[in-house]
């Protein structure tokens, strides 16, 4: 039966047979949503269906359609059992391939619930707008199970509120339109083992005009210069855009606020009438004129009170704001320090506390909270995006937030932050660079800077002035789920790649930060996050991330702290501490959370290193400090944190901070220092003069020029580990058989932190897969993902295998992950490499264990996570560019070797740190004679300080030694070989060649 016919027939049947319910004479017949008679299957998007969900598989309820003689309607009801520790529930989504449903003619939604009198609340949500049920806004309410037996729960649509703690796409318009509905969801109680029964979900009643019609203003805030006038547009709108049935009146009056009537503005009062039949969207205007005097003043507000009859009033009262004027901090010609000092001297404690508070944009109860709580910052967490996810939508969203900040006394602009860790990775269509592990493999500081410049340009063009990057972690254990966020295991390599800071920020002085293609950078995670001990994490099921770094003072300084001194010297504007704990052996403190370590943040970072930017916490990280919430706030702020990322707790944090200062447990001088640091960067960014998005660079987002940089980075990041018989580069004349899970998957090759926090397989964004790149290169390519197609008749095979996306501790080895290829990948490698010469590319965030198959593989490439430009990988495969990448981390033989790093006493890897064969480059001949000559050249470079000559000599020596070592790598050769690369990076060129000579002689 067609769905429309089913709705009509069941509506009539329900009206005749269902238990009597009060219904007005002119109410429409109820319209069923779910009868639970089997008309809606158990299925999920894109098909219509009912499906379960939960924080893990154990939290998903068990559902069934059960015949019940006491069913309120029909023969069956939906029954379920549950035992939820995290969260769990079920959803009915309408088919994504069909138009959304229009519920706007009805008063609300109702259903029968079999009460158990548990006293527990059950949340009920409806899904409004967007592309489908899993990309829509969630509007929520709840009911209490305080009854026994069947009861019909009626929920008027007016009872639903916008969810602020979670939105799958971060919000569309935050207006419950009811014309594009995608279904409903039920969230079951937590912490009790229970069962439920539900029946007959239906729409009921007739929507009155006050639900269908609403009065809106074109803005909530109208900043004007003193003496200017603001024009407020008042409009009436209806769901479905139908004309209004009854008149709507809007009485308006300027009243309240901080501006003085008659002195600061001319009062207004009147009434607007929209007659019956007025078209949806019709507008009228009210003008508010301000008066000019000669006084220097902070901003003053003029609320325009609206009293609406016949429609829903605006969610908040619009405000005209007379801009602050004449105050020293507004004078861009004054020295920065004077501007900061003047502004801080004028601020109240409450305003200062607001500046130290950062909230997640989707967590705002209302946008007006920005002014109400004087918020200093908002952020988008991974995947927290506007809808649609376009550059224009980002700029519009952030401008709307900035407008709210104009309603504060001193109109201090927000600083908006985002994790753009390998390009503007939250934005669909942005240029996605290789992750840092691949950038480290390039050994190209100039290229690292260029990738940072592209990222900054694309981020700032969407209105975002602040990037939570780069990660300066030194990865010491590849079981860590954040390994790929590191440039490598050697602090010298990490330091060499910090040119990316200049790409992001520009000049070390910060003079370029105000430009439309630069952003404030963040060095993270201070300090030691890459050195956490396996098994030490106490965060959920994580095994290593957010765990404990156990080091001597000397190890801490040499490995984990040294990159931060470089960042400070490069003018980094902000620093983010690590979730992890630091245990300095011998200091008697034991493990202490980094967010609580005043000795490290105040003592080392700010005092000893001279960091003059501000310190921002990680996401809700202060909650991990032992103690109650007041203690968390007190400890972290006193430890040196200047701004606290409290995604959903911004109200509680601000209140607690104020209370702690008033109680004397946090000094006012500490608060003044924190606020001064934050304001300094806001002034440097030019936000006081230009708070809104400069989108002049938006056309370059994802442009050919930007993608060319990413393509070059992808090419240079490829590390050729083995190349028996010169299988690579490929020739265009060869017939090539391509297989493997990662050959044609843009999501897998971009990895985590791509569009969403964890990333995802599949076509998550625009770009070129490795397979597409090979085809574009002109190769004669046949593709069979699982290698099921016949393998005869080919010259060479290319098997692209590796990991699927993950981020942070979710990717920890032992947390559902290992370093082995999947069974399908192994099968593809085995089948192709048995049939023909083969090259295996490993697309992953860390080394994969390949030793058991290495003998059967002719060529092996560490492709890392190359980003959106698969053409770059094809460039080296087909010889357009040479393979030049070098391992940024040691490639282990087995997981039992981990952690294994350059400089270890015992060192026997599959491939050593710094290893990387080359193509298209002539390797020097002459053996020890040539090495002696290169050693002399390196000694001269040491004496004269000629870094370019020293690097050239070491590179030639490395190629010579690599050629001899081939695949016969032993501890006596790998250890000095790896040490040589470290010595090169630290500028010890003669010593590097001496180490390489040692490896050569041991071969």
Short descriptors:
1003 residues, alpha/beta, six-stranded antiparallel β-sheet, 24 helices, 27% helix, globular, glycosidase, hydrolase
Give structural notes.
Residues 1-24 form the signal peptide. This protein has 1003 residues and is of the alpha/beta class. Strand 28 and strand 29 (592-593) form a beta hairpin. Helix 3 (336-346) packs across helix 15. The N and C termini lie far apart (78 Å). 54% of the residues are buried.
Quick structural summary:
Helices cover 27% and strands 21% of the residues. The protein contains 24 helices and 37 strands.
Compile the SSE list and pairings.
Layout: H1 3-17, E1 31-34, E2 49-54, E3 62-67, E4 76-83, E5 88-93, E6 108-116, E7 121-128, E8 137-144, E9 148-156, E10 161-162, E11 181-187, E12 193-204, H2 209-212, E13 213-217, E14 221-224, E15 229-238, E16 248-254, E17 269-274, E18 283-289, E19 300-309, E20 319-322, H3 336-346, H4 349-355, E21 357-360, H5 369-372, E22 377-380, H6 391-405, E23 415-418, H7 436-442, H8 445-460, E24 466-467, H9 491-496, H10 500-505, E25 522-526, E26 548-551, H11 553-569, E27 574-577, E28 581-584, E29 592-593, H12 598-608, E30 614-615, H13 629-639, E31 644-645, H14 650-662, H15 668-684, H16 704-717, E32 719-723, E33 735-739, H17 746-750, H18 770-776, E34 780-783, E35 796-802, H19 823-835, E36 837-843, E37 859-864, H20 870-877, H21 927-944, H22 947-965, H23 971-985, H24 989-1002
Parallel strand pairs: 14-20, 21-22, 21-31, 22-23, 23-24, 25-27, 26-28, 27-30, 33-34, 33-35, 35-36, 36-37
Antiparallel strand pairs: 1-12, 2-5, 3-4, 4-12, 5-11, 6-9, 6-12, 7-8, 7-11, 8-10, 13-15, 15-18, 16-17, 16-19, 19-20, 28-29, 32-37
Helix pairs in contact: 3-15, 4-14, 4-15, 7-16, 8-16, 12-13, 13-14, 16-20, 18-20, 21-22, 21-24, 22-23, 22-24, 23-24
